[in-house]
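This section describes the prediction task in plain terms. A model, or a person checking by hand, is given the sequence of a single protein chain and must write out its three-dimensional structure as a string of tokens. No templates, partner chains or ligands are provided. The sample shown here is typical of the held-out split.
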Amino acid sequence: MTVTLFAADYPLLDVFWTMLVFFAWVIWFWLLISVLGDVFRRHDLSGGGKVGWTLLVIFLPLLGVLVYLGTQSQHMADRNLDRARSAQAHVDEHVRSVAGGGAAAEIEKAKQLLDRGAISQAEFEQLKQKALA
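The expected answer:
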């Protein structure tokens, strides 16, 4: 009985070609999802515009993706940067609120300043309102 190895029937260059095709498909689907995601996240595009881009990308995918990337790539980058900055601002605000102890800690600090005579009662009330807002 002879044992035939599968790898012997599949040359190394075929392995590389298969890997190249596989990764090309992965990149293609990533581009497709990125374009469609950007189309549906846009606030400046009407419903008809979203339908038009979606139909173009679905029925003529290569042309649709290339045209969208060619005409909207800078705007895509700007929108992604805005979303990243907004998310970072939310995280920073959350960290500040958690690390600082929140409004109670700010009011306590203001009360200590009032007790030491560093601020007036009116200034204390302003700081208290600001902390509660």
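For orientation: The longest helix spans residues 61-99.
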